[in-house]
Each structure stands twice: as structure tokens, then as C-alpha cells.
Amino acid sequence: MLHRIPLRLALSVVLAATLLPAAALAQSQDTQSVAEASRRTRAQKKNTEKPAKVITDETLVVKKGDVQSATAEQLRIPGSPETPTQPAADAANSQGSKNPSEDEKVRAALKERVALKEKIKDAQSDLDLLQREYQLDQDSFYSSPEYAKNTSGKEKLDAMKQQISNKQQELDQLKARLAALPAPQESPATTPKP
Q1: Integer Cα distance of 66 and 186 in angstroms
Q2: How many domains does the chain have?
């Protein structure tokens, strides 16, 4: 029996010695093939030609102040067509379809509309900030176990609530003024061509 143990041990050592290098070789071939595949992929990406970028009026982004233009910049209402209205208005004036006073009225109404939209945007952001600050102060106030005794904190919350109410009324008035303005008139000369 003693003689069989070294024989079994020797047999298992010989078997392991023959199988281990084969497994290691297969694993190294896999890693080499993965690395080689990665190298080939990178080389293919470098060798592929990228299509030439075509610059058009739609893809060209020009920021204000980058390029001096011969025409003056005009205010544009968000949502209105991006075509310039100056050449169209000049064409309409040359045909005699509008007089200068009507054109000035339209421009004044447009400026007023833009100014009102800007005021509405500012009032909306102020209202949002006030509401957020109120929410934070309210959470802080009510997180205290003795909030019922804190009269100054309650007064501060009430004052902030009144500010929010006033700002909301101001915003509603601005929106009503904007709605009361006549809609911008589009003449056939200023409408974009499809």
C-alpha cells in the first residue's frame, strides 16, 4: 500500500505537468488574439477616410461680434422665423405698400413685445428663486422641535409667502399685458418661403 501512494502521486504530477503548459499556451493565444484584434481595429479606424464636412448656412454657427456685417442686427422674437425682416421691409417700402409711420409702429410694437418677454422671463426666475428659498426656510423652521415658540421664524415665513404672492401677481400682470398686445403682423413680403 505504501508503494501505491508514491505511484499515484508521481502519476498525478506527470499528468499535471503535461496539461498545465497546454492550458497556459491556449490562454496566452487567446490574449494575444484579443490584443491583436484590438490593434487591427484601431488601425482600421485610423485608415478609414472621414467624409469631408460640408459647411452650409444651416451648419455655420456665427456668434455675435465674430463677423462684422453690413446690416444692423435686429431683435428676434423666439419662435419667429429666422429670416431677416429688414430686406423684406425695404422691398415693401420700395413698392409703396407701407408708409414709414406704420413701419415705425410695427417696430415699436415688436420692441415692446421683446421687452415684455424679457421682463416675464426675469420675473419667472425671481419667483422660482423665492419659492425655493421659502421651501428651504420652511423645512428648516419646521425641523426644529420647538418651532411653535419661534415667532420670528414664523413671521419671516409669512413675509416670504407675501413676497411670493406679490411676485406671482406681478408675473400675471406682465403676462396679461403681453396677451393684450396685438399679434405681430406678417406681411406677404416677410413670410418665409417654403
Answers
A1: 30
A2: 1
Residue 62 lies in a domain: no
Boundaries of domain holding 160? 119-180
- Our CA angle for 52, 57, 62, nearest 5°, is 100
Task: Say what the alpha-carbon torsion angle 69, 73, 78, 83 is, to the nearest 10 degrees.
Answer: -50
Q: Tell me if 114 is assigned to some domain.
A: no
In a domain, 159, yes or no: yes
Helix and strand element counts for the chain (H, E): 4, 0
How many residues can be counted in the chain? Answer: 194
Amino acid at 28: S
pLDDT by position in tens, the chain (length 194): 566 677 777 878 887 777 777 766 666 565 667 788 888 888 887 777 767 778 787 777 766 555 554 455 555 565 555 554 444 444 444 444 456 788 888 888 888 888 899 999 999 999 999 999 999 999 988 898 888 898 998 999 999 999 999 999 999 999 998 888 877 765 544 555 55
Q: Phi then psi for 162, rounded to 5 degrees? A: -65, -40
- The answer to the question of residue 71 being in a domain is no
- Whether the full predicted model's pTM is greater than 0.90, yes or no, is no
